[in-house]
Structure formats: structure tokens, C-alpha cells
Amino acid sequence: MSVLNKVRFGMPLYLAAIGVLISCNSSSSSAGKNDTTATGADTIAKVKFLSPPLVKDIYTADPSAHVFNGKIYIYPSHDYDAGIKENDNGDHFAMKDYHIFSMDSIGGPITDHGVALDVKDIPWAGRQLWASDVAYKSGTYYLYFPLKNKQDIFQIGVATSENPAGPFKAEPEPITGSYSIDPAVFTDTDGKTYIYFGGIWGGQLQQWANGKRVNDSKTDLKNDDAPALSCKVVQLKGNMKEFDGAPKDALILDSLGKPLLGKDHDRRFFEGSWMHKYNNKYYFSYSTGDTHLLCYAIGDSPMGPFTYKGVFMKPVQGWTTHHSIIEFKGKWYIFYHDTELSGKTHLRNIKVTELTHNADGSIALIDPFVK
Ligand code: FUB
């Protein structure tokens, strides 16, 4: 791993350089423009983004998108500047509420439905409302959210609403047996719902083994030649508020059937999982974090194991991205984020672009910049 990649929630230098140039330019007038030219004493950078920000009046990140009642609903994190210095722990991601957005069509207007859940209304809250996701069952929408408890340990909570746009009411306690961050929920065609969760470094996954907190490590465990830490997956009970058993590893195997190793930072799971089903196969996708890629792996069961297939999105501007994938009116889309509006790691903006499954089932590589 190069020195450039060692700072969690920092930015690789080449992307930081682009960000600095853009923020120089956009701070005066053009925040949100899709095509940015910046000049310095002896530098000229021209960056054209593949897609424009979907929301420009607040900062948004980690977009989990779903189609409910024929409309697209987006459940992002709500970034803001808490004035906290950037560090490996991700303390500068100090989000304290969620807004929900909806769209009738891709490219059409987007509606901000306002604050759907506020940290002050969550009884067990410490700090930091990170990436959430939503599921629907029998007239109720369930919002799953990671939040640090009063002991500064991430757990996953659930909140309910009869409206996909909220407001949501949180349960008094986090989900029993939950830990770490980035819940992603997937309801299979047979009606069973699964929750995937976990994220290393600031997401604390490395602090847990077999459902018990075993250390307070801040980054990788340095078990380079051991199997990499896995995202966790467990079926939800019918009440959608409890795990149905102990979470299992969502194992990612290489083409020889061996688990990816801890040192394989270009391919191993870091955070931001998503599940979609295509042609009866289960596509597990995720971020590699410190190597800034979105990768995918395919399996025959929602519980895995999954065989690593490749990268499907190159690095965005910003430390990393966090995505979701939906099918809408016969086409597939990826929602993701970058830092086009601010040029700052912790002030992100959500975007959408089309995603293509090739005839052989692979996903076509997306470059978030237009050359
Ligand atoms: O938004 C805070 C964290 O940053 C998310 O939970 C991660 O997936 C990363 O996007």
C-alpha cells in the first residue's frame, strides 16, 4: 500500500489536486457546473464530470435508491461542515439528520421531502448518522441507519414510517447484535429480506469477531496474508426489526475459490455494500475504500460466497464513493457521490448515471470523468 493511501477519509494526492483546483474555481461563482477549468501560476486543469450533482442546496452522500410506487426515492447521508478536523476516524463526517428525495424520472426534477429523522429524536444516540438504507414490507417502510451510541461504538438502528418519504420514528434501542456501519437491505424475489453491513477503519468492523467487540483498532488489522475482513450478512426476521440468527461473512473468493487476502487492497471489501439481482445471479458490490474503487462479485445465493469479477467504477473526485444500483423502467442506474460542488472530502453531492450489464453478465466499467 502506498503512503498516499494511508489516511482514512483523506484524499489521494492526485484527486486532492483536482479538488483544490475545482474549489478555487467554484468558490467564486460556478459551484455545480459540470465542466470546470481552473488556472494556477503554471497549471491548467480541465475536469469534465460524467454527471451533474442531483442536489445543489445541501450536501448529500451515500445515496441508497429504491423504486416505491413507481417513483425513485433516494436515502442519502446529509453532509454538513461541523468544523471538525479531518482524521482517520472519520470524525469530520458528523451528520445529524437525514433528508429524503424523490424523482419521477431520471433527469427530471428532484423533490426534497425535508428532515425525515433527526439524531435528537433517537433515544440511544451518540453521534454520526452515516449511510442508511430502506426496505418496505406490508404497508411499512423501514429505515436502517448506523449511528455511534453513547459509548462511541457504531450500531445499526431501525426507524419506521407509513410513507417512503418519512418522517421516520426510531425504535428505542439499536438492533440487537448489530455493529459497524453501512446497512444495505435486499428483498429477494421470494420475499426474504437480508441486511448487509460493515465498514473497516472508521466504520469499526475490524474491532469485532463473532459478534463480540475484541479490540479498538482504528485501521486495518495488518493480517495481510489472512483472509480479508468480510462484510456481514443476515436475514431479517418477519418483523424487520431483528436479525434472524448470527450475521455471517459475505465471503469474496478469487477465481481459484480462495478468499481475498487482507493485503489485497485493490479487491478486498472496505465498506458501502449493495446487493442487486440480475438474470438470477446475486451481484454483491462494494467500495475498496483506500484504493477508491467500486468492485463487484457474483454468487448463487444472497448469503454468498461471491466470486470477485472486477472493478465497475473508477475513482471519483473525493476520498471514495458509495453507491446503490436500481432498475427503473427497463434500465439500470447507479447512484453515487463525489465532491464536485465543494472540493472537500466531507461535503459531498449525489449523482446518477446509467449502468450496463454486458451480454456475458459482467458490468461495464464506468469512468466518472469524461475525457
Ligand atoms: O458517509 C459516511 C461514510 O463515508 C459512509 O458510511 C461510508 O460508506 C463513506 O461513504
Task: Explain the layout of strands and helices.
Layout: H1 13-30, E1 35-39, E2 44-49, E3 59-68, E4 71-79, E5 97-103, E6 110-118, E7 125-127, E8 133-137, E9 140-149, E10 154-161, E11 169-170, E12 184-187, E13 193-197, E14 208-209, E15 212-213, E16 231-235, E17 248-250, E18 252-253, E19 271-278, E20 281-287, E21 294-299, E22 306-313, E23 324-328, E24 331-338, E25 349-355, E26 369-370
Parallel strand pairs: 18-22
Antiparallel strand pairs: 1-2, 2-26, 3-4, 4-5, 5-6, 7-9, 8-9, 9-10, 10-11, 12-13, 13-16, 14-15, 16-17, 19-20, 20-21, 21-22, 23-24, 24-25
This protein binds beta-L-arabinofuranose.
Beta-L-arabinofuranose (FUB) binds next to strand 3 and strand 19.
Can you offer a commentary on this structure?
By secondary structure, the protein is mostly beta strands. It has a single domain, classed as 5 Propeller (Tachylectin-2, Chain A), CATH 2.115.10. The chain is 5% helix and 40% strand. The protein contains one helix and 26 strands. The chain has one helix spanning 13-30; strands at residues 35-39, 44-49, 59-68, 71-79, 97-103, 110-118, 125-127, 133-137, 140-149, 154-161, 169-170, 184-187, 193-197, 208-209, 212-213, 231-235, 248-250, 252-253, 271-278, 281-287, 294-299, 306-313, 324-328, 331-338, 349-355, 369-370. The strands form seven sheets. Strands 7, 8, 9, 10 and 11 form a five-stranded antiparallel sheet that branches. It is globular, with a radius of gyration of 19 Å. The model is unreliable at 1-44 (pLDDT under 50). The structure holds beta-L-arabinofuranose. Residues 61-62, 77, 93, 130-131, 181-182, 199, 271-272, 322 line the site of beta-L-arabinofuranose. Keywords: Carbohydrate metabolism, Glycosidase, Hydrolase, Polysaccharide degradation, Signal, Xylan degradation. GO terms for molecular function: hydrolase activity. Pfam families: Glyco_hydro_43 (PF04616).
